[in-house]
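User: Hey, quick favor. My workstation is busy. Could you predict this chain's structure for me?
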Amino acid sequence: MIVSVNYRCTFLAASIPVESAAASATPVLFVGMQHFVSRSNVYNVSVGNVLTKKRQAEIVGQIGFCVATMANVREIQDIDYFNDFPYEAVVDFAHKHGRRSLLDASDEIYRGEIAHERALLQTKTLADLLRYINEAAVVRATGLPICTTIGSEMRPTVGTTLVTDWYARNLHLLANLGHLIRKPNERVLILYGAGHEYLMQQFIEASPDLRLVNTEAYL
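Assistant: No problem, here it is.
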């Protein structure tokens, strides 16, 4: 099975049979993606107009659909799941109780990454951007703050709630993915928001039915 996303950041899934796939565990490759159009994240990187001739040449249309076409996949399905993400409550608590420094620490990390990615896009392609945001060190650096600093240092009813909801959403994604794997000879490609990669890779590795594939080896 392949899970993919198009350049409008729609979350999709598709199934691809493979003759030589391991029978014991389904191989899963997670490729973190940018929100090329959506601005719904707390932190967003603008890649400019993806409909320009230059960007379209880099994207070659809608990524998920193109991959499915090349792999002769007939069915594309949605695996996304939405729940609460009470980030504003965390910000409000930090301001009222003198804990803004905790948010500033994570803010510095994310804004530094955004600046680097913007600079990269000035001279490089979208493919180069995807290679960068999927580097193991970048995945860890951008995935840790929400799971550690904010969750452990804020009052449990604020920080812990935010982290709990974040974990819950990603666990639902994994469950939705599992429901779509119907054959023992399938393999999975996930094209999904890069912010989910840190947790999803851990969940995939912990699943006895799945085998995480090294993303950097394929980009």
